[in-house]
């Protein structure tokens, strides 16, 4: 076995290949361990507390790392070993064999208790760092109902290697495809469907996409599953329409997997990282699947946003609704409404719901969803939330509460200012990005709003992500 030379700090050169004995002092938001080195760079300049980032390292652990990259202000390293007596009590063997290569999960080396602790401290740190909120309470993270096989949607890139069509997950921070065998956060049936499509592509000579040359036939496969109705949708994202043998592929696919009730061909001919192109064609069945949340049925089209962890979504929505303490006379807004899930779930507690969403297909689903659930006190508008709220203000709408559930980039400042101008006293903010939530809370504070507690909800076990809910009020 190779002898490990443990260098003592200060006089050592901090360069690629060197090994150092370290202690991990903290973790980054994306779950990399941080240690600090003292030594010299290759120009003999002294480096003090030079930060090094290490995948899969846990705060307070001690061990040996090997430097893999040294930049001007930071470096990256890999773990050589973690000392037995300095191993975190949260460390476990990751169940997934490709965990260290795949970019999908970030916390599989920690048990679930450790993951929840990490997420809570990340939320606290970010709120303090970005928002300056030292006193803001962060509750214990509300755990996910399931911690594995919870995802209802997968999006798998297809490529080409040695003239064969391959598919899998992107290797950490690259576009190199690691072939898919099993995935522990999505259902086995979705994984089997994707692998079967890959085999059929090879049988029917449907070629995987070559990103560099921009050639090939199939770029991605998206699968969506409803565990409550057992329906599955498959979207084949191809470079062109009318791919040879695609109908034969679909026939074999739906025969093997009868839960598939919808197959869509989406065409994406642009050189882009965005998965879906502008045009879609139905190849089989319906153009939606249905799922049930809090007793209501929801139609979901291939372009519509739908939460990926449906069992914990019910917990999330119930928490949001209970925090809001709606009154039967309340008129509320559901901004960024997607297919209307939150507004429809809240409708029975209030007088009227006004909803807005930017994606046309989602709004079409939302109209259907209100109808099939016999909800009559809800309206939907397709547009930008930040513009529609100004229209509602001009129309003189009197609003008691607003639920906002924006994408990662958070709220438009115009939307927050208009909430204030309309004198809306209650805002329930559901956020999937703690940094933008911290930024937006700061603005609400400047507008005179108050909030006391952030409630993290773990919608994404084994990954670094966490959803948060905050009730923001004005007297
Ligand atoms: C995090 S999702 C929430 C959807 C829904 N509330 C749910 O729980 O399923 C954010 C939604 O905002 C929509 N969106 C993005 N930008 C928007 C904008 N400027 N105005 C309105 N909707 C927008 C997205 O299409 C997406 O459906």
Structure at a glance:
By secondary structure, this protein is of the alpha/beta class.
List keywords for this structure.
475 residues; OB fold (Dihydrolipoamide Acetyltransferase, E2P); 9 helices; 7-stranded mixed sheet; binds S-adenosylmethionine; 3 domains; alpha/beta; disordered N terminus; Rossmann fold; 8-stranded mixed sheet; globular; single chain; 23 strands
Give your account of this protein's structure.
The chain is an alpha/beta fold and 475 residues long. The chain has three domains: 19-86, Nucleic acid-binding proteins (OB fold (Dihydrolipoamide Acetyltransferase, E2P)); 153-292, OB fold (Dihydrolipoamide Acetyltransferase, E2P), CATH 2.40.50; 309-473, 3-Layer(aba) Sandwich (Rossmann fold), CATH 3.40.50.150. It has helices at 112-131, 188-203, 246-256, 310-324, 341-346, 360-372, 385-394, 413-421, 434-446; strands at residues 19-23, 26-27, 33-40, 46-54, 62-70, 75-82, 137-138, 153-161, 164-170, 177-179, 218-225, 232-238, 260-267, 279-285, 289-293, 296-300, 331-335, 352-357, 378-382, 401-404, 426-431, 453-457, 467-473. The strands form four sheets. Strands 7-22-23-21-20-17-18-19 form an eight-stranded mixed sheet, with helices on both faces. Helix 3 (246-256) links the parallel strand 12 and strand 13 (260-267). Helix 1 runs parallel beside helix 9 and helix 7 runs parallel beside helix 8 (413-421). The chain starts with 18 loop residues before the first strand and ends with a strand. Mean pLDDT is 95; it is low at 1-5. The structure holds S-adenosylmethionine (SAM). S-adenosylmethionine (SAM) binds at residues 305-307, 336-338, 341-342, 356-359, 362, 384-386, 405-407, 432.
């Amino acid at each position: 076995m190779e002898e490990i030379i443990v260098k003592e700090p200060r006089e050592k050169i901090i360069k690629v290949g060197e090994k150092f004995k370290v202690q991990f002092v903290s973790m980054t938001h994306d779950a990399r361990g941080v240690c600090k080195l003292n030594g010299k760079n290759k120009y003999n300049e002294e480096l003090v507390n030079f930060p090094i980032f290490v995948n899969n390292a846990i705060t307070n652990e001690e061990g040996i790392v090997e430097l893999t990259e040294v930049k001007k202000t930071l470096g990256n390293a890999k773990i050589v070993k973690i000392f037995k007596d300095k191993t975190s009590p949260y460390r476990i063997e990751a169940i997934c064999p490709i965990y260290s290569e795949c970019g999908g999960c970030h916390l599989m080396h920690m048990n679930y208790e450790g993951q929840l602790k990490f997420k809570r401290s990340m939320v606290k740190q970010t709120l303090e760092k970005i928002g300056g909120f030292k006193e803001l309470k962060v509750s214990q993270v509300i755990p996910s109902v399931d911690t594995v096989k919870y995802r209802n949607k997968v999006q798998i890139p297809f490529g080409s290697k040695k003239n064969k069509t391959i598919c899998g997950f992107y290797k950490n921070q690259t576009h190199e495809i690691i072939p898919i065998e099993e995935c522990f956060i999505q259902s086995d049936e979705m994984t089997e469907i994707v692998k079967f499509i890959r085999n059929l592509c090879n049988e029917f000579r449907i070629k995987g996409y070559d990103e560099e040359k921009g050639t090939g036939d199939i770029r991605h496969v998206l699968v969506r599953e409803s565990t409550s109705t057992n329906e599955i949708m498959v979207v084949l994202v191809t470079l062109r329409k009318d791919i040879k043998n695609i109908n034969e592929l679909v026939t074999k696919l739906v025969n093997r997997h009868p839960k598939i009730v919808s197959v869509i061909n989406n065409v994406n001919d642009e050189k882009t990282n965005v998965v879906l192109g502008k045009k879609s064609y139905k190849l089989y069945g319906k153009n939606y699947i249905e799922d049930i949340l809090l007793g209501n049925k929801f139609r979901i089209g291939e372009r519509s946003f739908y939460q990926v962890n449906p069992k914990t979504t019910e917990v999330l929505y119930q928490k949001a609704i209970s925090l809001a303490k709606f009154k039967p006379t309340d008129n509320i807004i559901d901004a960024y409404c997607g297919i209307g899930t939150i507004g429809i779930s809240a409708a029975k507690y209030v007088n009227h719901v006004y909803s807005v969403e930017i994606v046309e297909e989602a709004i079409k689903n939302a109209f259907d969803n209100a109808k099939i659930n016999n909800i009559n006190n809800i309206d939907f508008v397709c547009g930008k939330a930040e513009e529609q709220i100004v229209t509602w203000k001009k129309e003189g709408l009197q609003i008691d509460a607003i639920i906002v559930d924006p994408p990662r980039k958070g709220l438009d400042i115009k939307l927050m200012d208009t909430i204030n101008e309309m004198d809306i006293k209650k805002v329930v903010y559901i956020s999937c990005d703690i940094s933008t939530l911290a930024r937006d809370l700061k603005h609400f504070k400047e507008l005179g709003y108050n909030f006391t507690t952030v409630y993290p909800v773990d919608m994404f076990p084994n990954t670094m992500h966490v959803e948060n809910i905050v009730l923001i009020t004005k007297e």
